[in-house]
Amino acid sequence: MTEATQLPTPKGYKILCTLPTIENKFDSGLLKADTTVKYDELLSNVLFVVELGDMAYADPQRFPTGPWCRKGDFVLTRANTGTRLRIHDREFRLINDDSVEAVVQDPRGIQRA
Questions:
Q1: 9 vs 19: CA distance, rounded Å
Q2: Helix, strand, coil: what percent of the chain each, to 5?
Q3: Spatial distance between the Cα atoms of 52 and 26, rounded to a whole number of angstroms
Q4: Cα–Cα distance measured from residue 46 to residue 62, given in angstroms and rounded to the nearest whole number
Q5: For a designed S-S bond to 74, which of 13, 36, 105, 107 qualifies (C-beta 3.0 to 4.6 A apart)?
Q6: 31-49 pLDDT, tens per residue?
């Protein structure tokens, strides 16, 4: 018998992502208020790809060059993209495959403008 996981398995064209850890301090070293950290999480546009659904990027007419991202990539999306859920105090999002706007090798330092 295999052990059950609490992570959802994305279906269809959905992609399961999580947020990189949000820093609880400003660059100056000053601690952020809890509401500021939550706001940063809510509007984060950097996500880490955990798993792709079985039909993600499968349509050759919509994605003639193939997948826009892979499991393990950091991606940029619009703020508030996807279905948000929390599992053991960690935020995850289910996004559509066409919500990915870019892949980033190193997301450190990227902030909303």
A1: 17
A2: 10, 30, 60
A3: 33
A4: 23
A5: 107
A6: 878 786 677 777 788 999 9
